Amino acid sequence: MSTPMLEIKNLHVRVEDQEILKGVNLTLNRGEVHAVMGRNGSGKSTLSYVLAGKDDYEITDGEILFNGEDLLEMEPDERAAAGVFLAFQYPIEIPGVATMTFLKAAMNAQRKSRGEGELSTPEFMKAVKEAASLLEVKQDMLKRPLNVGFSGGEKKRAEILQMALLAPQLCILDETDSGLDIDALKVVSEGVNKLRGPDRTMLVITHYQRLLNHIVPDVVHVFSDGRVVETGGKELALELEAKGYADFDAETAA
Amino acid sequence: MSDYGIPTLKENIDRETVDQVLALDVDKYKYGFETDIESDMAPKGLDEDTIRFISAKKEEPQWMLDWRLEAFRRWQTMIEPTWARVKYPKIDFQDQHYYAAPKGSSGPKSLDEVDPELLRTYEKLGIPLSEQKILAGVQEDGNGEATPFSGNVAVDAVFDSVSVVTTFRKELAKSGIIFCSISEAVREYPELVQKYLGSVVPVTDNYYATLNSAVFTDGSFVYIPKGVRCPMELSTYFRINERNTGQFERTLIIAEEGSYVSYLEGCTAPMRDENQLHAAVVELVALDDAEIKYSTVQNWYPGDKNGKGGIYNFVTKRGDCRGKNSKISWTQVETGSAITWKYPSCILRGDGSRGEFYSIAISNGHQQVDSGTKMIHLGKNTSSRIISKGIAAGFSDNTYRGQVSCHRKATNARNFTQCDSLLIGDTCGAHTVPYIESRNSSAVFEHEATTSKISDDQMFYCLQRGLSEEEAVALIVNGFVRDVLQHLPMEFMVETQKLIGISLEGSVG
Ligand SMILES: Nc1ncnc2c1ncn2[C@@H]1O[C@H](COP(=O)(O)OP(=O)(O)O)[C@@H](O)[C@H]1O
Ligand SMILES: [Mg+2]
């Protein structure tokens, strides 16, 4: 079997002297979609930030391999250029920088790190147009400063729009469903589904099962108190929905 | 944009920003080279003979010499001001040259007479002096890079103490516009110069202005006749080259009734270990219904990363909205100089006149900036607008100092002031010092101020999308200054976006 796209082995992470991740093990193969479900505060966002390389997290044990290489050795921008993308749970506002400007900056920065030339304006415009129509993003939004005054739904759409344009290998979606009404959820999920492919792996973090009705995962992991406590197929999400997290917590405690 | 097809100018600019930001060199001050050219210099030191020397070199009439000497006598009785939030060792005014000119260039000539070495210098700086090239629409320099100045710009190039060439003069003269060096104006248009010189910034105004009045060497003179809209941007490009030489330029712009002019000013200097003094005076006069738009990109050498060297930029700029419904707008981008002390101001004398001040001031390393504006409301129904964006990084100090005042008779004066500071790192400082005086109860003055930092979350977000730390800072800062950027002419907007990135290199990580 080929090298997994992402291997997380016995990952322990501390924030301000508090252990948040307590031995996470996960293996994601190329082309798979994995869901990580867990209640608030269980450490899901922490995991996503550590994957993306945010400061302030102390890795006390374990390792992360991305296509067999040590991900923890790489700077955040290097990880991005290598194909790691995080759709933020809470996207950040960049005042004064038009969304369009930001998109081009990001695309060209990644191309530059990979030793590729810059996109011409027509190429860029074409790519944006395609991605925007996929996510039903209006042109007007692209002119507004990124995430400034965006509704919850617009922010999440803008995240997936960036994902579509940057065409990453590994997509980490942190609670992309939060803040979306049912129509927006459909649009965003369809957008995500169109981006699925044999060379792209997704880690879909969510709190609720409903997202997984739209983005149907290959594997479901239940996350509790900083580790994976149960792994199964897509039916595990339904089971979790029916039983609630409490049962799984009990299993952890046992 | 109506569709995704043809982008509008604005979007073009946005894209341009990023393109420019991404194209940044790793190299810091790229204008730091020195031109090896023989100079004609005044001996070091300052006394009445120095002033006579300068005046003789410029073949000035007696009245001009008398004016200078009177200023000099006055200056000797004055004390250097200390109220600005800047620190520097005492300047030894006797330890520098007050006149330096490239050999054999007593005044501007036609292009083919100018020393090719000088032309090469300006070419290297991206300043097109060749009229043919511009007229032919050539916008690329030898390296295939687009020059910051493209399109129709008439340039007055000042090298150390003299104007070496002024382009497009004949073209402009057709509309009655005078665009020449101030030295030439003193000789050729004495009535105009005598009428307006010192009428906005009096000889006795302040220590540096008085010094400038005594020893000013060159600068530009612009006269726009009644009802004329100047058909191209006018620009002066100042270059300090000689060692131990002060630059004291003097600019005078007069816009007659109903006329309009947009004027650009750029400045650079070689990298040197010693500090060099630059004390300019700029006077603008706008008569009834006239408008003057004055834009500056100040990029004098800021000193090295330890704070050694750099220009002391002590400048007095003032515009007089003398006529009714006249308008003066200052836009400045301050990225250079070790110390900047500068308050481009508007005297809103004419009823219904308007003053504007848009500023981007970036300080990094050990730079010190104390800059702002004064809006002095004297006439009725006068209005003013101030938007200041200060960005401090490294160990720098960045102060906005602004005064808005309203005279007893200035009914219905309006001012809006917005002062935003952005801090990068925690070893720099940003300060806002507003002075507001109102002697008329109908005045409405609004003042808003914010101070923010580039947050770790913003940085991380940008890095996650693949931007390097420096690209992220440049992008965020370009967003921060966007409101001001929009007021710059195209030529300067592109250059400014580039400069922002370059000035902030090394501010993170
Ligand atoms: N920067 C931080 N400083 C202190 N505590 C943090 C920080 N980030 C996360 N935590 C704590 O870590 C735990 C897990 O948080 P998080 O990863 O956001 O969980 P989830 O995304 O599953 O809701 C929470 O108790 C939270 O308070
Ligand atoms: Mg979370």
From TrEMBL, chain A:
Superkingdom of source: Bacteria
Pfam families: ABC_tran
InterPro entries linked to this entry: AAA+_ATPase (IPR003593), ABC_transporter-like_ATP-bd (IPR003439), ABC_transporter-like_CS (IPR017871), FeS-cluster_ATPase_SufC (IPR010230), P-loop_NTPase (IPR027417)
Family of this protein: Belongs to the ABC transporter superfamily. Ycf16 family.
Domain ABC transporter: 6-250
Species per Swiss-Prot/TrEMBL record: Pelagibacterium lentulum
Keywords: ATP-binding, Nucleotide-binding
Record keyword Ribonucleoprotein present: no
Lineage of the organism: Bacteria, Pseudomonadati, Pseudomonadota, Alphaproteobacteria, Hyphomicrobiales
Keyword presence, Nucleotide-binding: yes
An annotated Gene Ontology molecular function: ATP binding
Protein name from the UniProt record: ABC transporter ATP-binding protein
TrEMBL record, chain B:
Name of one Pfam family that matches: SufBD_N
Residue span(s) of domain SUF system FeS cluster assembly SufBD N-terminal: 171-230
Alphabetical GO biological process terms: iron-sulfur cluster assembly
Ranges for domain SUF system FeS cluster assembly SufBD core: 238-480
InterPro entries in the record: Fe-S_cluster_assembly_SufBD, SUF_FeS_clus_asmbl_SufB, SUF_FeS_clus_asmbl_SufBD_core, SUF_FeS_clus_asmbl_SufBD_sf, SufBD_N
Domain of life: Bacteria
UniProt family annotation: Belongs to the iron-sulfur cluster assembly SufBD family.
Name of this chain's protein: Fe-S cluster assembly protein SufB
Species for this entry: Pelagibacterium lentulum
